[in-house]
Design brief:
Elements: E1 18-20, H1 22-25, H2 30-43, E2 46-50, H3 56-70, H4 74-77, E3 90-92, E4 114-118, H5 128-131, H6 153-178, H7 187-190, E5 196-202, E6 216-219, E7 225-229, E8 236-240, E9 243-246, E10 254-258, H8 260-265, E11 275-277, E12 289-296, E13 303-304, E14 322-323, H9 324-334
Parallel strand pairs: 1-2
Antiparallel strand pairs: 2-10, 3-4, 4-5, 5-12, 6-11, 7-10, 7-12, 8-9, 8-11, 13-14
Helix pairs in contact: 2-6, 3-6
The structure holds 2-oxoglutaric acid (AKG) and fe (ii) ion (FE2).
Fe (ii) ion is lined by residues 219, 221, 275.
Pfam family, one: DIOX_N
EC number: 1.13.12.19, 1.14.20.7
Catalytic activity: 2-oxoglutarate + O2 + 2 H(+) = ethene + 3 CO2 + H2O; L-arginine + 2-oxoglutarate + O2 = guanidine + L-glutamate 5-semialdehyde + succinate + CO2
């Protein structure tokens, strides 16, 4: 089987470990957590975390607000489409983008999903770093739904974003230690991050999808790490060891996966794993899936180059140094279908 094969059912996945990170957060056994995370990042690039400290009510509010927004008529949702395609904010209609195109497959069909994107909250975007024209649309203000259309959306997403930002900071500290670096080694690369938080809706299927068309085509993520709150409606699958593995979506947990920039930093010692959102089997076509995904993205001008600790005499850097911003925009623009 190759990674483009269209199987729906994947292997169960003992390969993706469930890791309780509370001993790191409360300081009772930080090394134990660091070891488990290092192993998962090197082996499969996916882990499921519990003991993260994010209140379930925050997740529930963000999910409820997403569902309320997506239930609006298409003509209303269209009011929230950004004014230009490289401004990654607001509403993206069904069939407008293709994840697989980001991997160079320019003919891949569009993904079976719609979504809503927000970026930084709680900071002053008029300060020179953020308003600098050289940063393009990276630090554009958010597009918020009118409260008349989705009353809880802005508050729920602001709170969820803030919680994910704190969790990502903790994870980047765990990552630094797992790479035998000081705990704050990444701090000055992520203090002006431009992370997208995206609510995805994968609607029910009402017909056989086109050949190779999936809810989310095969791709690797673009940033440092991704934090996914999935749904009981499964579908997230990771490619490893020559087969697709179902990523366990355990209630109360988050799935974390490594993105391209972490692979570039570590010279592929850690894997930015190919993954996809598979279509449900025929008898589950009526089930829709809603996910909340935090795509942690280092500072726009952070130069991502092989960490000295990941470079040996026989391991020259595999990737040319590249900024976080350049990498992300290259990938974003490749995903466009319409
Ligand atoms: O919706 C999901 O669960 C994950 C989607 C995904 O992998 C992506 O958009 O990069
Ligand atoms: Fe992804």
């Amino acid at each position: 089987m190759d990674s483009s094969s269209e199987n729906i059912r994947a292997a169960g996945s003992p390969a993706v470990p469930v890791i309780d990170i509370s001993p790191f957060r409360d300081g009772t056994d930080p090394d134990g957590v660091v070891c488990q995370v290092a192993d998962a990042c090197a082996r499969i690039g996916f882990l499921v975390i519990e003991g993260h400290g994010v209140a379930p009510a925050l997740v529930d509010r963000a999910l409820a607000a997403s569902k309320q927004f997506f239930a609006l008529p298409p003509a209303v949702k269209a009011n929230y489409v950004a004014d230009r395609p490289d401004r990654f904010r607001g509403y993206f209609p069904l069939l407008g983008q293709s994840l697989a195109r980001s991997t160079g497959d320019g003919a891949a069909p569009p993904d079976l999903r719609e979504y809503y994107v927000i970026n930084r909250v709680g900071i002053d975007l008029t300060v020179p770093y953020y308003s600098d024209p050289a940063k393009g649309t990276a630090y554009s203000p958010n597009i918020w739904p009118d409260p008349a259309d989705a009353p809880e959306f802005q508050a729920a997403f602001t709170d969820y974003y803030t919680a994910m930002e704190a969790l990502a900071t903790t994870l980047m500290q765990i990552f630094a230690l797992a790479l035998e670096l000081p705990r704050d080694a990444f701090a000055d690369k992520i203090d002006r991050h431009f992370t997208n938080l995206v609510a995805f809706r994968y609607p029910p299927l009402d017909r056989e999808p086109a050949p190779a068309q999936l809810r989310g085509g095969p791709h690797a993520d673009f940033g440092s790490l991704t934090i996914v709150h999935g749904d009981p409606i499964r579908g997230l699958q990771a490619w490893s060891g020559g087969q697709w593995h179902e990523v366990p979506e355990v209630p109360g947990t988050f799935t974390v996966n490594i993105g391209d920039l972490m692979a570039q930093w570590t010279n592929d010692r850690w894997v930015s794993t190919l993954h996809r959102v598979a279509n449900p089997p025929r008898d589950e076509w009526a089930h829709e899936r809603t996910s909340l995904v935090f795509f942690h993205q280092p500072n726009f001008d952070a130069l991502i180059e092989c960490l000295p600790s990941c470079q040996g005499p026989d391991e020259p850097p595999k990737y040319a140094p590249e900024t976080s911003g350049a990498h992300l925009y290259r990938k974003f623009m490749a995903m466009r279908v319409t």
